[in-house]
Write a structure and sequence with these properties.
By secondary structure, the protein is of the alpha/beta class. The protein folds into 2 domains: 180 residues, FAD/NAD(P)-binding domain, CATH 3.50.50.60; 123 residues, FAD/NAD(P)-binding domain (3-Layer(bba) Sandwich). It contains 7 helices and 19 strands. Strands 1, 2, 5, 6, 7, 8 and 19 form a 7-stranded mixed β-sheet that branches. Strands 10-17-11-12-13 form a 5-stranded parallel β-sheet. The radius of gyration is 21 Å and the shape is elongated. The structure holds NADP nicotinamide-adenine-dinucleotide phosphate (NAP). NADP nicotinamide-adenine-dinucleotide phosphate binds next to helix 5.
C-alpha cells in the first residue's frame, strides 16, 4: 500500500496553496485533484481581485500556475481521482481512492463546494440540455447565440455570469428572489446599467420549460410579492445561487455545521481529529474568495507540517 506524509484532497486555490507549502517543506504531498482539476475558479472568467495581477488573470490560468508551482517543489498529483472513503479513526489514516487503499500521516481537506441546485424536477431533467451552472463553460455554445437567456441568483456569481452572457445573448434576464442584489456594489452597478440585462425582481423560478421537449424554451416565474406568474421565453437557464460544501465523505467523523461546512479550531485549520486539517470553501461559508482560500490553505499546510514534526 502506498504511504504518504500528507495527502491533500482538492485542487482549488486552497488545495494548491497547501501543496506548494507542504511540498516546499519537503513533505512530498499527494494531491487528489477530484474529478476536475482546478476547482471552481476554472469555471470563472477574469479574476480581478487576486493580489499581484493588476490587469486581472483568467481563472484557469491562475489555477494552472498554482499547479505548476506545486509540481516544481515535488508535489505528486493524481488527476481525476475520487476519494471514496476515509478511515480517520487511527493514524496512519486510510483512504480509499478509486478503489485503491493508501495511507497518510496527515490529511488536508480542501474539497471546496459545488453548485447549489434549485431543486426542481424540470431542472434535473433539463440539466445539460439548456440548464447549466457555468456560463464560462457553456455560454459560447451556438445554441445560446443571439437568444434570450436567464440567470438565476443575486450574488456576485449571478452578476458575473449575466455579464459574461451579454456577449452572446440577445437579452439576459436576471431572476432574483428579492429586490436587492447581494453582489458587491461594483458588480451590481455594472450589471444593472447594462443595456442587455433585465432584472426580474422578487421572483422565483417555478418551472423550467419544457422537459417534454427535452430542451429549454422558457421559465415560469412567480412574483413572490404579488403571487402572479409569467413565462419568460429563453434558450438557456444559468443557475448561480451559491454553493454546497463537498464534505459528505467525512460525515460522522469530522465535525461540521448543519450546512455541511467543516469546523476548525480558529485561528488554526485543525479539525476535531488530530492530524486532519481543513481549508478553503469547505470550511468557509462567509468569505469564499480565492485569496481567503489560498490563505487558509497556507495555514493548513503549516499546521500539518508542525503536527508531523512534533
Ligand atoms: P452567494 O453570495 O451566496 O449568493 C447566492 C445568491 O443566490 C443570493 O442572491 C441568494 O439570494 C440566491 N439564492 C440562494 N438560494 C436560492 C434559491 N434556492 N432560489 C433562488 N435564489 C437563491 O453566492 P455566489 O454569488 O456564488 O458568491 C459566493 C461568494 O463568492 C461570495 O462571497 C462572492 O462575493 C464570491 N464571488 C466573488 C466574485 C468576484 O469577486 N469576482 C465572483 C463570484 C463570487 P439572497 O440574496 O436572497 O440570499
Amino acid at each position: 500500500m502506498q504511504a504518504f506524509n500528507v495527502v491533500i484532497v482538492g485542487s482549488g486555490c486552497a488545495g494548491w496553496t497547501a501543496a506548494i507549502y507542504t511540498a516546499r517543506a519537503g513533505l512530498k504531498p499527494l494531491v487528489l485533484t477530484g474529478q476536475s482539476t482546478g476547482g471552481l475558479l476554472t469555471t470563472t472568467s477574469t479574476v480581478e481581485n487576486f493580489p499581484g495581477f493588476p490587469e486581472g488573470i483568467d481563472g484557469p490560468t491562475l489555477m494552472e500556475n498554482m499547479q505548476k508551482q506545486a509540481e516544481r517543489f515535488g508535489a505528486v498529483i493524481r488527476h481525476n481521482s475520487l476519494l471514496e472513503a476515509a478511515d480517520l479513526s487511527k493514524r496512519p489514516f486510510r483512504l480509499t481512492v478509486d478503489g485503491e487503499s493508501l495511507e497518510t500521516q496527515a490529511l488536508i481537506v480542501a474539497t471546496g463546494a459545488g453548485h447549489r441546485h434549485l431543486g426542481l424536477e424540470s431542472e434535473k431533467k433539463l440539466d445539460g440540455h439548456g440548464v447549466t451552472y457555468c456560463a464560462t463553460c457553456d455560454g459560447p455554445l451556438p445554441v445560446y447565440r443571439n437568444k434570450p437567456l436567464v440567470v438565476v441568483g443575486g450574488g456576485d456569481s449571478a452578476c458575473e455570469e449575466a455579464m459574461y452572457l451579454t456577449r452572446f445573448a440577445s437579452q439576459v434576464f436576471l431572476i432574483h428572489r428579492r429586490d436587492q442584489l447581494r453582489a458587491s456594489r461594483i458588480m451590481a452597478g455594472r450589471l444593472t446599467s447594462h443595456p442587455k440585462v433585465k432584472p426580474v425582481w422578487n421572483s422565483v423560478v417555478e418551472e423550467i420549460l419544457d422537459a417534454a421537449k427535452g430542451a429549454v424554451t422558457g421559465v415560469r416565474v412567480k412574483d413572490v410579492k404579488t403571487g402572479g406568474s409569467q413565462t419568460i421565453p429563453c434558450a438557456g437557464v444559468f443557475v448561480a445561487i451559491g454553493h454546497v460544501p463537498n464534505t459528505q465523505v467525512f460525515k460522522g467523523q469530522l465535525d461540521m455545521n448543519e450546512n455541511g461546512y467543516l469546523s476548525v479550531q480558529h485561528p488554526t485549520m485543525r479539525t476535531n481529529i488530530p492530524g486532519v486539517f481543513a481549508c478553503g470553501d469547505c470550511v468557509d461559508s462567509i468569505y469564499r474568495q480565492a485569496i481567503t482560500a489560498s490563505g487558509s490553505g497556507c495555514s493548513a499546510a503549516i499546521d500539518a507540517e508542525r503536527f508531523l514534526a512534533s
